[in-house]
C-alpha cells in the first residue's frame, strides 16, 4: 500500500504541474499571473475567456477521460485475462464509431430538422449512438471470451474493428454532407470539443463506473486466478462479469461519445499501474490507473496544443508514438503473450 500511495502521490503532483502548464501554454502564451488573474476575474476579460471557456474545460476533459480509459483498460485486462485488452483492441471503440455513424446516417433520412439538430447540438444523438455501440460490442466480446483464447479474442476484436470501420464508410456514403462533417469532426479524437456544459455528461457516468469498479474489485481479483477459484470464494462469476462490463461501458462510452475514439490510453496505462503498485490486485490499481491515464491524456493534449507555427498535431498520433512501442514490447517480450491461447 505504501508503494501505491507513493506512486499515486507522484502522479497527482505531475497532473497538477501539467494542468498548470496547459493553462499557460497554447497559441496565446499566458504567464502564471495571467492565469491566476483570469481565474479570479481580476485580469483581462479576453484572457479570462481563453482560460475559462477554452483551456480549463479541455484540461478537465483530458483528466476525466484519460482516467476513465485507464481504469476501463485495467478492468478489461483483468476480466479477459489478456494484457492486450482495451476498448480499442477489443472493438469497443469501433462499436461506438458504428453507432455514431448509424445515428448520423439516420438523420439524413429524417429531414432537415434532424440535420439542424445534429449541427447545433450533436451531443445527445452522438452520445446515444456511441453508448449503444460500445455496450453491444462489449456484450458480444464477453460472450465470445467464454469460447476462445486470449489471442483469438484479440484478433476477433481487431477484425471487428476493421469491419465496423468499413461499415461506417459505406453508411456515411448515404449520409448528408452535414452529417459527414459531424462524424468527421467527432471521429478525429480530441479533448477540446467538450464544453463546460458537456462535463456533467462525462463526469457522472464515469463516477458511476468507478463506483461499480471499486465494489467489484475483490471479486475481479479472485477471477484473475480462474473462474473455479473465484466461485469457490463465493463470487457469482456471471453477475461479476456483467457488472464489470457495465462499469466498462460507463467509463468508456461517454469518453468515446464526447471525445471521439481516443486510442492507446486504456492499453498501456494498466501496465504502468501494475509496475508502480507491484501487485495484480485490482483495488489498488484503480486509483493508479486513473491517475496515470489522466497524466498520459493530459500530456498528449499539452503536446497537441503547443504553439506550433506551421502545422498541428492529432491527439491519437501523439498517443500512438507512446503506445505503439509499448504494444510491440508486450508482443515481443511478455511471456503471457507468447504462451497464451
Shape: globular
The end-to-end span amounts to: 33 Å
Main β-sheet: number of strands, strand sense, barrel status? none
Q: Helical content, roughly?
A: over 70%
DSSP summary: helix tally:
16
Which quaternary structure do these chains form?
Answer: single chain
Global Rg: 20 Å
Series of secondary-structure elements, N-terminal to C-terminal: HHHHHHHHHHHHHHHH
Compute the number of strand runs: 0
Question: Would you kindly provide a written description of the structure presented here, covering whatever features stand out?
Answer:
This protein has 341 residues and is an all-alpha fold. It has 16 helices and no strands. It has helices spanning 2-24, 32-40, 45-79, 92-108, 112-120, 123-145, 150-173, 177-187, 199-215, 217-223, 227-232, 237-259, 265-277, 282-304, 315-333, 335-339. The longest helix is centred in the first third of the chain and has 35 residues, at 45-79. It is globular, with a radius of gyration of 20 Å. The relative contact order is 0.17. Residues 337-341 have low confidence and may be disordered.
Amino acid at each position: 500500500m505504501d508503494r501505491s500511495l507513493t506512486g499515486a502521490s507522484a502522479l497527482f503532483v505531475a497532473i497538477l504541474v501539467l494542468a498548470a502548464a496547459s493553462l499557460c501554454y497554447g497559441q496565446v502564451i499566458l504567464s502564471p499571473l495571467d492565469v491566476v488573474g483570469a481565474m479570479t476575474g481580476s485580469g483581462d476579460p479576453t484572457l479570462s475567456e481563453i482560460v475559462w471557456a477554452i483551456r480549463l474545460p479541455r484540461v478537465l476533459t483530458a483528466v476525466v477521460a484519460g482516467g476513465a480509459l485507464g481504469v476501463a483498460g485495467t478492468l478489461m485486462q483483468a476480466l479477459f485475462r489478456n494484457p492486450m485488452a482495451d476498448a480499442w483492441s477489443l472493438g469497443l471503440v469501433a462499436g461506438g464509431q458504428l453507432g455514431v455513424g448509424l445515428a448520423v446516417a439516420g438523420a439524413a433520412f429524417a429531414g432537415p430538422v434532424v440535420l439542424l439538430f445534429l449541427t447545433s447540438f450533436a451531443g445527445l444523438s452522438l452520445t446515444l449512438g456511441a453508448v449503444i455501440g460500445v455496450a453491444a460490442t462489449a456484450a458480444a466480446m464477453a460472450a465470445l471470451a467464454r469460447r476462445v483464447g486470449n489471442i483469438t479474442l484479440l484478433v476477433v476484436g481487431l477484425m471487428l474493428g476493421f469491419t465496423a470501420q468499413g461499415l461506417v464508410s459505406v453508411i456515411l456514403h448515404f449520409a448528408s454532407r452535414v452529417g459527414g462533417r459531424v462524424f468527421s469532426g467527432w471521429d478525429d479524437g480530441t479533448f477540446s470539443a467538450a464544453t463546460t456544459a458537456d462535463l456533467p455528461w462525462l463526469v457522472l457516468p464515469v463516477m458511476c463506473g468507478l463506483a461499480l469498479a471499486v465494489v467489484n474489485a475483490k471479486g475481479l481479483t479472485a477471477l484473475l486466478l480462474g473462474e473455479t477459484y473465484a466461485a469457490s470464494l463465493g463470487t457469482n462469476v456471471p453477475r461479476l462479469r456483467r457488472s464489470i462490463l457495465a462499469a466498462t461501458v460507463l467509463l468508456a462510452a461517454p469518453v468515446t461519445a464526447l471525445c471521439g475514439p481516443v486510442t492507446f490510453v486504456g492499453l498501456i496505462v494498466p501496465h504502468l499501474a501494475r509496475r508502480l503498485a507491484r501487485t495484480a490486485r485490482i483495488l489498488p490499481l484503480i486509483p493508479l490507473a486513473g491517475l496515470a491515464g489522466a497524466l498520459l491524456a493530459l500530456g498528449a493534449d499539452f503536446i497537441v496544443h503547443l504553439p506550433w507555427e506551421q502545422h498541428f498535431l492529432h491527439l491519437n498520433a501523439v498517443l500512438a508514438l507512446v503506445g505503439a512501442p509499448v504494444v510491440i514490447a508486450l508482443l515481443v517480450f511478455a511471456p503471457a503473450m507468447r504462451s497464451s491461447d
